[in-house]
Each structure stands twice: as C-alpha cells, then as structure tokens.
Amino acid sequence: MKKFEEKTVETQEIYDGKVVKLQVDSVTLPDGATSKREIIKHPGAVAIIALTDDDKVVMVEQYRKPLEKSIVEIPAGKLEPGEEPHVTAKRELEEETGYTTDNLQYITSFYTSPGFADEIIYLYFTDELKQLKENVEGDEDEFVELLELSLEEAEKLVKEERVHDAKTAYALLYLRMRK
Amino acid sequence: MKKFEEKTVETQEIYDGKVVKLQVDSVTLPDGATSKREIIKHPGAVAIIALTDDDKVVMVEQYRKPLEKSIVEIPAGKLEPGEEPHVTAKRELEEETGYTTDNLQYITSFYTSPGFADEIIYLYFTDELKQLKENVEGDEDEFVELLELSLEEAEKLVKEERVHDAKTAYALLYLRMRK
To answer: Which site among B8, B35, B141 would you substitute to test the A interface, given the most A Cβ atoms closer than 10 Å to its Cβ?
Structure first.
C-alpha cells in the first residue's frame, strides 16, 4: 500500500557502518510540502522461539550497549548478505545455544521501528531441538550466556525488566497463548 | 544487570538529527579485546491500545518511509523532551485519533532494537474513550488515517502484512489473550 506516499527528492548518505547505514531522504509529502526523513538501513534479522523437550524456553543473556545493561532475549541474529532467513535462523540457533533443529516453523515477521528503521525480524518456532556434538563458533565480539527457563520464570523476568525487548515480549505472549 | 559489560573507551558523535542521533562507541569487551558499537539514540515513544465502546481497535494508517509502504498501526508517537510517557500517550491519542481518555493503564515497556538502538516504547491500554469536540493538531508532516477495526479484522491485516510492526503485533496478541 502506498497511501500518503512520500516521494524521495534526494538521498543524503550520512554513514555506512558494520551494522547500520544512516541516510537522510528529502521527501515530498502528500500535501506537496517537503520534509526530511532520517532512515536507518539494517540487514534484517531472525529470532527463534525454541522449546526444549521438557518445555523450557531457550534464551540468551547478553550485554546490549545501547541500553547499557544485559537483557535476556530469545536467540536472534542478523542476516548475512544474500542469506535466506530460515538459514540464518538455524545458524544463529546453533551459534548462540548449541542446539540445532531440522524443523523450523515460520511464524510471522515484523518491523521493529518503522518510524526510522527498515529492520525486519523473521520469527521462527521449534520444539524439536537436538544438542550439537561440537560447539559452533559465533561472532568473536559476542558474549552470550544460555538460559533455559519455564514460561513462568521468563514472564517473571519481564516484570523485572530483565526481559525487555519487543521480539522476546512478543514471543512470550505467543507461548502463553499457545498453552 | 551488567553481565558481560562493555566499557566505553571513546564515543564518536556521527550525526545529530531531528529524530535520531548516531554515535559509534569504542568498547572493551569482557575478554579485554576492543570492538565498535554503532548506537542510535532515540527519545523513546509510547503506543496506545485503545478500544471503542463497541470493542473496535483504534488504529492509524500512515506511510513509513523506511519501509516504502503504508502500514496500519496502533496510535503511537515520540516523547517530547522531559515529557512523562503517560502525558505523551494522551497527547498522541488525541492528535492521531480525535479521542481522549481519563483512564490510561500502563501495560509494559520494551526496547524495539536493543542491538543498535535505545528506543523504548511504553505501552498503554484504554477502553474508556471520549470523542474530542475539536480536533487537536498533530505534527504538520504527519498524515494519518483513522481506522476502527474488530480484532478479527486487524488480525487479517497481519496476515496481509498491512499490519507489520512489532508494537502492533504485540498489541493484537495482547487483545487476543484478553478475550
């Protein structure tokens, strides 16, 4: 849908980084006026709702520099260039948790911050996990700790704001509704 | 929690815009190595789950330049400097929908993109709406269309990817669970 479309007059590239790019678009608004839109370009990401055989939610704790705190999230990671989301999902599950699966079900996708970023998250579900025999190396600048929590334990962390991100909040509601 | 804390060695300010700031922090990792973190600073936002007397979900359609499409979302908006989230929530509800309320219940908050941004959304709920007698002016560069949809109609838009953002996806799950 293109309702209220804002046509690009000019794009100014501000920054091209490791994770994000920043550009400022000059746009024509529906009433003919002009404005500027600050846009973060992001490669997109996946996240995985993974349940162990004893019905625990597989989660990872990691430090999030923008928040200056560590939070507990479902496993997730960025798409590599040209990588299909379900391939990313299996790879990130293996790297972050030591589990793998042959049965990843696609649930939904959503943009995280549509006002200023094009980041999209593809969300998957599995309850058929197998332990990897050998650990798979992840990004060398990522430090994550594996947690396996009952849904009730995870929901308690929401109240404590130790679970504090949108995809994980969604995932826990999804699991609650599935019960 | 500060597990795996990444200490800032240096902050490089890249861009200071209307909505976002971009900085790159040089950090010391838990193993002593150094890395860079690209960080978007955002003022934070609110979103409102609002139900009409006949149980319709109040939503707004608007063009989202980063996605190059219009999507249907729950009403939302950015915090002004120093503004309390519940004040923002009432103001954005009035500006975007023509409704007001004296009963906003805080539900939860979540970071939208903890890997690269500090944007937090404070989520509110109301089912006590009153029509404003006069429209309140919103931002002059925002064009929004009001929609009032049954939960089933809104869920259909999720499947069509016309509802396609994290906060609205969360809101619709929340309403489904409330039934």
So the answer is: B141
Question: Does the pTM of the predicted model rise above 0.90?
Answer: yes
Domains and CATH numbers, chain A: 7-41 (no CATH), 45-110+126-178 (3.90.79.10)
The shortest C-alpha distance from B134 to chain A (Å) reads: 22
Pull the structure tokens for residue B54: 């006949």
Q: Mark whether B142 is an active-site residue.
A: no
Across chain B, where does the E strand assignment appear? 7-16, 21-28, 34-41, 45-50, 57-64, 69-73, 76-78, 99-100, 105-111, 120-126, 130-131, 144-149
Q: What is the pLDDT of residues B64-87, one digit of tens each?
A: 999 999 999 999 999 999 999 999
* Interface mutation target, options B109, B110, B123, B143, chain A, most CBs of A under 10 Å: B110
Closest approach of A118 to chain B, Cα-based (Å): 5
Rounded to an integer, what distance in angstroms lies between the CA atom of residue A21 and that of residue A80? Answer: 15
As to burial, measured by CB atoms within 10 angstroms (0-12 exposed, 13-18 middle, 19+ buried), residue A117 is: buried
Instruction: Decide if A77 contacts A88 (C-beta within 8 A).
Output: yes
ipTM here: 0.97
Q: Tokens 């550009």: give the residue.
A: A23
A151 in reach of chain B (CB within 8 A): no
CA B145 – CA B129 distance, rounded (Å) = 18
Can you list the positions of beta strands (E) in chain A?
Answer: 7-16, 21-28, 34-41, 45-50, 57-64, 69-73, 76-78, 99-100, 105-111, 120-126, 130-131, 144-149
Contact pairs from chain A to chain B, CB under 8 Å: 217
Name the burial class of residue B71, with classes exposed (0-12), middle (13-18) and buried (19+) by CB atoms within 10 angstroms of its CB: buried
Scan residues 21-80 of A and list those with Cβ closer than 8 Å to B. 22, 24-25, 27, 29-31, 33, 35-42, 45, 61-67, 69-71, 73, 78
User: pLDDT tens, B150-177?
Assistant: 999 999 999 999 999 999 999 999 999 9
**Are A71 and A43 contacting, i.e. CB atoms less than 8 angstroms apart?**
no
